[in-house]
């Protein structure tokens, strides 16, 4: 399975590392050249890192996106994550898109605009807290589909 991760911050780094350990084919896209270099460096992720903007059509065409099974956008910017997922879905026909949503108010917008899975850390934590207070077992990651 080929997964493209857009955003090389902590979430993108650990997600990519986790996927590689499980034998997935992964490309990590990071637009900050210095951050990308650090991710490529000794003991990090190596050659899977590409420097470029994950919400730019021309750049995405160089990533093999048309053969990706999943695109996961985990930048710190909701607008970038939304655009990246929309391009993946509409222009490159990627079957599954997943987006990190930093502002919980945007979850419904992502759903309406075609993102398959929108994850808000705030909503996940809120769900876990409410279940804990109610004495219920957590249902796993809270997602909006």
Biggest beta-sheet profile: 6 strands, parallel
Overall 3D form: globular
Helical content class: 25-40%
Content of β-strand: 15-25%
The rounded distance between the terminal residues' Cα atoms is 21 Å
Please tell me the total number of domains: 1
Q: Any guess at the CATH architecture?
A: 3-Layer(aba) Sandwich
CATH-level-4 superfamily name: NAD(P)-binding Rossmann-like Domain
The succession of helices and strands, N to C, reads EHEHEHEHEHEH
Q: How many extended strands?
A: 6
Structural class: alpha/beta
Question: CATH topology, anyone?
Answer: Rossmann fold
Question: What order do the strands of the largest sheet run in, or round the barrel if closed?
Answer: 3-2-1-4-5-6
User: In CATH's first tier, which class applies?
Assistant: Alpha Beta
Low-confidence parts: none
Query: On the 0-100 scale, what is the average pLDDT?
Result: 92
User: Helical element count?
Assistant: 6
Radius of gyration based on Cα positions: 16 Å
Please provide a written account of the structure:
This protein is of the alpha/beta class. The chain has one domain (2-120): 3-Layer(aba) Sandwich (Rossmann fold), CATH 3.40.50. 39% of the residues lie in helices and 18% in strands. It is built from 6 helices and 6 strands. The chain has a 6-stranded parallel sheet with strand order 3-2-1-4-5-6, with helices on both faces. The chain is globular, with a radius of gyration of 16 Å. It starts with a strand and ends in an 11-residue tail after the last helix. The mean pLDDT is 92.
